[in-house]
Amino acid sequence: MFKVGIIGIGYIGNVHIEKFASIDDVCVEAISDINLVRLRKAKQKFNINTTYFDHRGLLEKEALDLVVICVANHLHRNLTIEALDLGHNVLCEKPMALTLDDARAMIEASKRNKKSLLIVNNFKWDFLNPLIFQMKSLIDSGWFGRIYHIRLNRIRSKTFPLNDHSRWNLDSKQSGGGVLIDLGPHIIDLGMWLASDYKVSAVFGTADKGLLKLDNIDDFASGIIKLRSGIALQIDLSWSSHHKPSWKIDIYGDKGGASLSPNKVDHENFMLFRLENSELKRKHLSKNFLKITNEKSLQEHVVSCIKRNVASDCSAENAYAVLETILRWYESA
Ligand SMILES: NC(=O)c1ccc[n+]([C@@H]2O[C@H](COP(=O)([O-])OP(=O)(O)OC[C@H]3O[C@@H](n4cnc5c(N)ncnc54)[C@H](O)[C@@H]3O)[C@@H](O)[C@H]2O)c1
After folding, report:
1. First-to-last C-alpha distance (Å) of the chain
2. 14 CA distance to ligand 1 centroid (A)?
3. What pLDDT is attached to residue 130?
4. How far is ligand 1, taken at its centre, from the CA of residue 72, in Å?
């Protein structure tokens, strides 16, 4: 049995419990939270044997195959390093950390202890599966020719209440910023993953208070990331806006293009384009293409990579490149 321990049983901690518990031969052995009400609720709901108020109990007493860190962003560094130093493999929530020094210290701890450090990027499994895997295999097969531009947007009209600022996400000391450091890790990673290029040559972007009007918290961000391969990623993000919510990925290649609108993941939401004899041909992806990955969730992917000791799509090195990009984007804004 592959044993998982989870620290931080708030919104995403509960999602992880549910997803890990649904995998064959995986069990959530122990959980920890400083909020006893949340801890008790999750223990009952998911029938978990062991709970800890103090995360050190979980790290010191439990023999685990993986510890998942699901606390506010500013706590990622210390909890991750503690877990690695006590001999655990770690899956830490995004963003990896608030600074590059912290992210480097986490990677060093993973190397020093010869333990895996992975960082969550779950959108491709949770919201875009299987279309995004199909898009990626078409890219890798050369269907689009030379790709020069990928546009990704994730525009929300409402995420947090505009008049209640009690959540840690809205305090920059705990979060490190707003929508860019919150949704940015997912969307930037998706763009770099599609491009198979995590090396950045230039970044320029805006980050605006938008509707929230809070210090150092951006509610809207728009930027261009030029990758070393020459591909440009154009990204728009918003938490709240007087605008229609949207989520779209567009590929521009010199042999073909594509548009993916993941709001409803249906084969009809993936459109391919090709200009032939000056005429634009369009086609939807056929339904029988839609079986591309055996791993139904990020959690399955992580367990499988740790068990087989192979590289993962959630590597700390990729997450470091994504964090560096976000910090450069903030600097330019
Ligand atoms: N991957 C995703 O799609 C996704 C979605 C939401 C949040 N997140 C990330 O997950 C992390 C948590 O976000 P959330 O929305 O679940 O926050 P949350 O506030 O809902 O939950 C955080 C929990 O951590 C607990 N906690 C704080 N210090 C602790 C400690 N020392 N030991 C044990 N528990 C402790 C809090 O009591 C709280 O219950 C953040 O880094 C966020 O960026 C990821």
Report:
1. 48
2. 10
3. 84
4. 5
